[in-house]
Amino acid sequence: MDETMITVRVQGSHRRVLAGGDRVTVDWRPGETLSQLLQRLEVPADAIWLLVVNGQRVDAGYRLAPGDQVEIMSPVGGG
Known about the structure:
By secondary structure, the chain is mostly beta strands. Helices cover about 10% and strands about 30% of the residues. The protein contains one helix and five strands; from the N terminus they run ββαβββ. The protein has a five-stranded mixed beta sheet with strand order 2-1-5-3-4, with no helix packed on it. It is globular and about 35 Å long.
């Protein structure tokens, strides 16, 4: 894997959240926060239940590093 990239995956979504599918790889931008990345990818706020980076729960203010693995846990409806 290219260490200057960030991988973003969506888990549990019942709809398309990322333009490129359930998994996309994007350029790492120095100083970018998770919130800024989500805005750049146009991820709707209501599609986010939990944010995980490299297996650890984080908040949207987390400052990304090259090679990070981001998972967006989306709410799942049922009935």
